[in-house]
Amino acid sequence: MKKRFVEDGVGAALGNRQGRRPKYLRKADGEFEARLVALSCGDPPKGHAQWSLRLLADRAVELGFIDSVSHETVRRVLRRTLSNRGAASVG
Q1: What residues does each domain of the chain span?
Q2: Cα-Cα-Cα-Cα dihedral of 83, 80, 71, 23, to 10°?
Q3: What pLDDT, on a 0 to 100 scale, did the predictor assign at position 56?
Q4: CA–CA separation, 72 and 74 (whole Å)
């Protein structure tokens, strides 16, 4: 308890876990996200009708966009960036 108080403050020492964030850096920056979106809009590999999240993750690593990435990270990126495709009014 003393260690938590010294490192994280009173709230953490008393069991309040709010405000604690994971201590890791994001690997998926804006450039990676843009490349991933462009890749997902392109044609899927031969033998596949459409891109899967795992195919996109594997291809992003093959092309050197990122060192390693999970299909779940790909899903989050695409969900965030492609979810608002129709927001701009047309015509």
Answers
A1: 22-82
A2: -170
A3: 96
A4: 5
Tell me the pTM.
0.65
**For the segment 6-58, what is each residue's pLDDT rounded down to a tens digit?**
877 777 667 665 555 666 677 788 899 999 999 999 999 999 999 999 999 99
The residue length of the chain stands at: 91
Among residues 39, 72, 43, which one has the least CA distance to residue 56? 39
Rg value, the chain, Cα = 19
**C-alpha–C-alpha distance, residues 15 and 43, integer Å:** 50
Question: What single DSSP character describes residue 63?
Answer: T
**What whole-number distance in Å separates Cα of residue 68 and Cα of residue 57?**
8
Question: CB–CB of 58/44 below 8 Å?
Answer: no
Phi, psi of 37 (to 5 degrees): -65, -45
Residue type, 62: E
